[in-house]
Each structure stands twice: as structure tokens, then as C-alpha cells.
């Protein structure tokens, strides 16, 4: 919690309101951080935005560019990420791992890979491993993929490094994401465009 904090005022002594409009009627202004930068000690330039019942303040230093943010709501909170909090940017969901994206991609059109549940993984104790076979007859290659750790086994070629891709991952990608043959539409009962 911040202590000894003052809300910045514009030159006329009024507080910024919603949408950047200034108002001098509201005098409850004792709240946002001091006017000096923590990094270099220069003066901060303050701007405010109102979002619902919260008021968001962003102070930027003219000297070093350091930003300080404060969110005023039911409690006074100093921002860990001042610019995102000021702009009210929603938190991003963590990126889905590459092997999950690969599994989903190959399961959908146009590849429609039929993954079979395999059980235990060879690389971790999880039981989230799936397998499929790919390639041309008579040389069909078995591909095993763990959805927990990304472990891949393509007929004895093993690995779990997806970026940069190891040889097992490259081989699995080549087998399952290869260009479709020209007779693909006929075999799956889709019309071929001439």
C-alpha cells in the first residue's frame, strides 16, 4: 500500500475525469503517487482514466521514460504493469504449447488424423500419450505424442524439443502435414475443382 500519496492536478488545480475531461467540482484528490520519478528524480507527468468505479493514473518521467501507475478503486493499488493497467489491457492467456497446437491441427480438416489413446508416456509419468500411423504402404510409421510433455517417438526416433524442432518433431511434422495428393478430394468424397 502506498503512503503519503497525492493525486496530481493539472495547472488549474482540477483533477482529470473520465474521457480526459477536466473537472474542478470534485475535490477528493488526495491519492496518487508523488511528483518525482523513482529512477532519476525528475518530475512526472500524470494522466488519468476512469473505468467503472476505478480511476487509473499513469505517471511518465520526462527524463528517463520510467512509468508509474496507480489504480484507485476500493483500495489504492500500485500497478506492477503501469501501461497495461492504465489502458485496461486484458491479461493474455498463456500460449498453448506447440505439441497441443500440432495435435489439434492434424486432427482437423484437411488432415483428419485419427489419434488413438496410447496411455503412458515414455518421457514423463503422465498418461496422456496418443499414437497414429502415417506414411505410404508398405512403410507405415508409428507416431507417438504425449500431450503433457511434448515427447515424440517416430519409429524409434525420439525427442521433445519443439523450438527449434528436433529430428523426431521434424519427422512427425513431415509425415502428418505433408501436401495432400491430387486424389484426396475423390477419396474423401469431396469434389475436385478443375
Structural commentary:
The structure is a single chain. The chain has 194 residues and is α+β, with helices and mostly antiparallel strands. The protein has two domains: 15-87, no CATH class; 98-179, no CATH class. The chain has helices spanning 82-87, 98-107, 167-176, 184-187; strands spanning 15-16, 22-23, 44-51, 54-61, 67-72, 76-78, 116-119, 129-134, 141-146, 152-154, 157-159. The strands form three sheets. Strands 7-8-9-10-11 form a five-stranded antiparallel sheet, covered by helices on one side. The chain has a four-stranded antiparallel sheet with strand order 3-4-5-6. Strand 1 (15-16) and strand 2 (22-23) form a beta hairpin. The termini are far apart. The relative contact order is 0.09.
Write the layout of secondary structure elements.
Elements: E1 15-16, E2 22-23, E3 44-51, E4 54-61, E5 67-72, E6 76-78, H1 82-87, H2 98-107, E7 116-119, E8 129-134, E9 141-146, E10 152-154, E11 157-159, H3 167-176, H4 184-187
Antiparallel strand pairs: 1-2, 3-4, 4-5, 5-6, 7-8, 8-9, 9-10, 10-11
Strand count: 11
Spans of at least 5 consecutive residues whose pLDDT stays below 50 are: 1-33, 186-192
Reported for the largest beta sheet, the result is:
5 strands, antiparallel
**Shape designation:** elongated
Q: In the residues, how many domains can be counted?
A: 2
The N- to C-terminal Cα distance equals: 69 Å
Amino acid at each position: 500500500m502506498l503512503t503519503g500519496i497525492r493525486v496530481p492536478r493539472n495547472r488549474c488545480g482540477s483533477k482529470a475525469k473520465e474521457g480526459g475531461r477536466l473537472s474542478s467540482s470534485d475535490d477528493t484528490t488526495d491519492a496518487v503517487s508523488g511528483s518525482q520519478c523513482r529512477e532519476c528524480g525528475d518530475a512526472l507527468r500524470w494522466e488519468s482514466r476512469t473505468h467503472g468505479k476505478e480511476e487509473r493514473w499513469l505517471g511518465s518521467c520526462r527524463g528517463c521514460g520510467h512509468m508509474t501507475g496507480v489504480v484507485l478503486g476500493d483500495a489504492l493499488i500500485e500497478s506492477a504493469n503501469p501501461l497495461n493497467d492504465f489502458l485496461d489491457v486484458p491479461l493474455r492467456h498463456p500460449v498453448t504449447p506447440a505439441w497441443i497446437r500440432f495435435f489439434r491441427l492434424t486432427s482437423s480438416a484437411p488432415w483428419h488424423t485419427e489419434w488413438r489413446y496410447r496411455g503412458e508416456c515414455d518421457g514423463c509419468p503422465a498418461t496422456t500419450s496418443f499414437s497414429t500411423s502415417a506414411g505410404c504402404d508398405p512403410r507405415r510409421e508409428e507416431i507417438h505424442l504425449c500431450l503433457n510433455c511434448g515427447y515424440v517417438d517416430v519409429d524409434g526416433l525420439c525427442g521433445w524439443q519443439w523450438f527449434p524442432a528436433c529430428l523426431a518433431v521434424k519427422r512427425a511434422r513431415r509425415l502428418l502435414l505433408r501436401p495432400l495428393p491430387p486424389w484426396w478430394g475423390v477419396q474423401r468424397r469431396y469434389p475436385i475443382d478443375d
